[in-house]
Design goal:
Number of helices: 4
Radius of gyration: 14 Å
Largest sheet: 3 strands, mixed
Order of helices and strands: HHHEEHE
Length: about 90
Amino acid sequence: MAWGQSPCPVLGELGILFSGSGTVNHYTAKTLYGMLNWGMDAQTAINLPNFGALGAPTLLEDNRFPAGTLDWLRAHDHELTERTITS
């Protein structure tokens, strides 16, 4: 969980409590990674494509990943399913 008034500026910027579906940890990790490693603001990081792995297949947000990424994953034996992913 992360919410405002955190001594960590990234968590403080988010200002929300994360809860929801089984893939919410994926969304949270994606957002924090974008903010901490790529210097994105919260909204830009949230807008990154969603993905999740709860076993096989790997779920990818439909029409959000470049063809080259999909090709690379398939070439490395990842079973992929593209679909609409909501929080």
